[in-house]
Every structure is written in C-alpha cells, then in structure tokens.
Amino acid sequence: MKWAEPKQRNVGAPASAITCRLDRLAEEVARQGWEVVPRYDGPHPLVHVFDRDVPQFGERITLVPGSTPGVWWFRSSTGEDLAPHTDPSHAARQITRILIPYVTAIRAARSHRTQRSGTPYSTPPAAPDPAHVTTIAELEKRFTGVVCWWGRYTYEWWAIVPGGTQWTIVNAEEPDSLLQEILKARRRR
Predict the structure, then answer these.
(1) Among 10, 37, 47, 169, which is most buried by a count of CB atoms within 10 Å?
(2) What is the pLDDT of residue 7?
(3) Does 70 have pLDDT greater than 80?
(4) Closest Cα to residue 182, out of 148, 133, 135?
C-alpha cells in the first residue's frame, strides 16, 4: 500500500474567507435549532455544533479545499465532506442527520432514568468509580470479545456482544442483569 499525503487544510484561502463561510454555516445550523460556537483562534478555524441539552457531544466542522479549484467543502470531525461552501443549508441538514440519532438516544436514556427513578440527572463524576472498573474487567474476562462499560450519562451497564458480522448491544440496570442479557444475546447468535 502506498502512503498518501493528507490534504492540507485551509491552504490557499485567506482566514477571513474561511471564517465568513463558516459563519454562514453557523447561521444555518443555528436556524435548525443547534447551538454553535465558532472557534477561530486555533490553527484551523472551525465551528462546534451541539445540542444545548447534550453539550458534551457534538460535531466540529471545518472548511477544506475540494478537488475542483475554488470549491471548498464543509467537513465533519469524522472526515465526511458534507457540502460545498456554496451550499451551507445542505451542510446544516447533513450535520442534523449526523447528530440527531445520538442526541435522541442520550435524551431518551435520560428521560427513561428520570421516569424510572423520579430523580433528575446529576453531573457524572470525572473519574470512573473503581467498583465499576472491577466489574467491567470481570465481565470482559468472563466473556471473551465482549466490550462492557458503565454509562456515565444513562446510569446503566452496557455491553457489545460480537456475533459474526453483526454485533448486539445490550444494557441493564445491574451487573447481574447485564450478565443475563449478554448470555441471551450470545444464544441468539
């Protein structure tokens, strides 16, 4: 395999042109209901797009030169080219397409927990609970290939269970219940 040099970002355009185009995108994204924070002080100007209820999750959009001279592209933090710089409304729709499933899942999990327990969400701790780390290690040791974690925002236990080309994601309120869910998912494969 031959090494391919990565495309240089923001080469050939003045910073004012880049930030002007990103500002147009920011207006479109804000019009669709997202929060937008321009970040033009770093080496690569970008806009951070997120939901006000889920500020820790979002997309960082930059502007990169396209293969056609004079055409620039809005690019997501995952490397997806969203739309040419001439169509910020299409790029905003693409950003919505990317963010909606994740934000919806996070909001649903929060709503589920609030309805179940009657207590609102508190801010999760910055460092994982040592008991959680031990439980995760024990579950992963028992089930080779299974990836487990404690949902700091959902307050539930989660696991991805491998099964050929399709994997199953399961969750439970307690580690013992998660163990049962993992066993059920493995039997289905």
Answers:
(1) 47
(2) 44
(3) yes
(4) 148
